[in-house]
Each structure stands twice: as C-alpha cells, then as structure tokens.
Amino acid sequence: MSARQAKGAAAEQLAADYLCRRGLALVERNFRVRGGEIDLVCRDGKTTVFVEVRLRSRSDFGGAAASIGAAKQARLILAARHWLVRHGETPCRFDCVLLDGRDPPTIEWLRDAFAAD
User: Fold this and answer.
1) Which string of DSSP letters, residue by residue, matches 41-55?
2) What is the pTM of this model?
3) Answer CATH for 3-59+89-114 from 2.60.40.2950, 3.40.50.10790, 3.40.1350.10, 3.10.25.10
C-alpha cells in the first residue's frame, strides 16, 4: 500500500467512526464497479447513505468539497445504482465527509450533498 493509499484508508476509517458515533451503521467499504466507487455505504434508519470521503491537506482550488464535481458525482451515482440493484432498492442519499490535513483533522459532514437527478 502506498503512502497515499494509507492516508486514504485512514481518512475513510476516521469518517466511518465519525458517522457511526452519530448513529449511522456501516454496511460496506470501497464498493467498486466499472466506472465508479463508493467509499462507504451506511444505513441511516431505512435510508441507504452513499458516502464520499475527501481528505485535503491544502485548501487550494476550493478544498475538499470543490473536488467533488459533476464528473465525480456521476461516477458515484453510477456505482450507487449498481449497489441498489444488487442489494435492493431503498430510499437513498449522497453524503460527503470532508477532512482537512491537520492533526487531528477537522471533520465536516455534508448530509444530502447532492441528488441523483
């Protein structure tokens, strides 16, 4: 595992722990299909929550939130559709967990960050 992959895995673990402490249940990590990947799949009651985790050490170019543009959203939506076909259709939403590069990082949770329409 490269240093970058290790940082990404650590960020995903921090995000999963953060969301679990706030009542979400972790269902799956790193769901991949051709053309897309979802970092975390969680449950919030009966709602399936697809979570994108972003770690940014600098705020250049708008920071972590700005890095989740239309193309990235399309890849997340594609992967989410595959996940729902395999596991059953449920109400769902797309959340983002943003971490900065500080030690310890500041965590920002964007609930319902974007829609699939």
Assistant:
1) EEEETTEEEEEEEEE
2) 0.90
3) 3.40.1350.10
